Amino acid sequence: QGNMAFTGKYEFEGDENYDEFVTKIGLPADKIEMGKNCKIVTEVVQNGNDFTWTQHFPGGRTTTNTFTIGNEADMETMGGRKFKATVKMEGGKIVAEFPNYHHTAEISGGKLVEISTSSGVVYKRTSKKIA
């Protein structure tokens, strides 16, 4: 797996259950539209257990979460809400509890696969490595 397994730039390739998931977590309609089939580019810099996780949205908006595995960090949700979370590493997956969903991220077959679960709704987003 190596230490820098996550480092790279990934472009949105596809997702499953987007509408159902964002409705479930209460995202406002304008944000739902904005995120639909959105070519989000996710940039990850991993330095051991330290991560900088940036999402670049079309139109120039970015959100960045900086965290260290095992330590509490200030994070921001898809909808821009600020919260505190302790990010864990479990079997090569990054695991975080967001305020209203459970989130995992892993590198699988060279792709970044992110899964968010809220009350039984599973949202899966796949991004291909571009750098």
From TrEMBL:
It is found in: Cytoplasm. GO terms for molecular function: lipid binding. Residues 8-25 form the Cytosolic fatty-acid binding proteins domain. Pfam families: Lipocalin_7 (PF14651). One of its GO terms (cellular component) is cytoplasm. PROSITE patterns: FABP. Keywords: Cytoplasm, Lipid-binding, Transport. Its main location: cytoplasm. InterPro entries: Calycin, Fatty_acid-bd, ILBP. Belongs to the calycin superfamily. Fatty-acid binding protein (FABP) family. This is FABP6 protein. It comes from Jacana jacana. The gene is Fabp6.
